[in-house]
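Entry 0007
Protein: Dihydrolipoamide acetyltransferase component of pyruvate dehydrogenase complex
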Amino acid sequence: MERTFVLPDLGEGLTEAEIVAWRVAEGDEVGVDDVVVDVETAKATVEVPCPHAGRVTRLHGAPGTMVAVGAPLITVAGATAEPAATGSGAVLVGYGTENATMRRRSRSRTVVAAGGSAPRVLSPVVRRLARDRGVDVRVLSGSGPDGVILRRDVEAAPAAAAERSPNGPPARPQRESHPTPSVQSRQTLHGIRRAIAEKSARSRREIPDATTWVDVDATGLMEAREALGVGLLALLGRISVAALTRFPELNASVEHDGDDLVLVRHGHVGLGFAAQTERGLVVPVVHEADRLSTAELAAELARLTEAARAGALTPEQLTGGTFTLNNYGVFGVDGSTPIVNHPEAALLGVGRIVDKPWVVDGQLAVRKVTQLSLTFDHRVCDGGVAGGFLRYVADCVERPLGLLLDL
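Output (structure tokens):
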């Protein structure tokens, strides 16, 4: 008996995913809840386990193929009618049974191309870079742990469009499209890049935003960082949570109910923070950040940052935000007017911290100065509330010990 497993419901309103890499090839034997493919959604790259056991007879799509929810993914022959007792067979993208999760953690991330037999390890970023440059990864020696092929390996390899690999056919040359002489390349947006584009455009269409900003003396904040042994992002996050407690109008969102607009106030703070990764900009969320101490918040920010860099964030960790913190100062810029992260109502931006002349008690001194900006949805509050929020944040940055009086 043959059974065809289809791409399951992805949740979060997602309707499609891109096949990143197959973990199996046609003819391989698989067990219940074995991970068979990595797919990339608009939220994250996740592993998909198969609920059937048997021999793989067909892989429905090569890496790079977009697959709709409900479309065939893999066909297995000799599949049992019911899942084995060691696994539930309940499959949801990004999750699995306890046994399957343990197997996935212990299994090496060897990626096998559809129809091929040579193992290799590739991240989505490296895979796309190799495809765009026409580099045959089968002839590369990875410089990463256990021979993992890294981005630098692909960048250092010569384009293989005109060369023939000794182990196979010539590498596919970079596909180019030249509608006009001035166009260098064209690239269809998929996954996270497409999600960022669509969400940014929606924010601009629906949210009448405004931005206010202020220069602040961050010398006290830098001293607090050294004294407490936590990162600036954690301190700024703790200050933001305290400010939202005083100005709950900004911990809100606007929803459409037919022709009506409904203002929704949130009972807890889902603190999102912008994180730049190789796959693009993502915004992990610290859920119920208002219930965490500064040390607990610092630990959670570190954990989510590491998961973001590894491309291991789950859909749950990327949703549920009510307010976003963007430390664009790490890019060496002083200020910005960022786009509100829809459907949130506000975003706090922090510029770089640099030495500048500053008047302290009537005397000119050199201080650590930064610029704070608040972009907010003008439908949820007016300038008075926004200005009060930003002034409170600025006061806490300049005198962080004063925040302890409110805790």
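Curator remark: Residues 81-119, 160-178 have pLDDT under 50 and may be disordered. The chain has eight helices and 19 strands.
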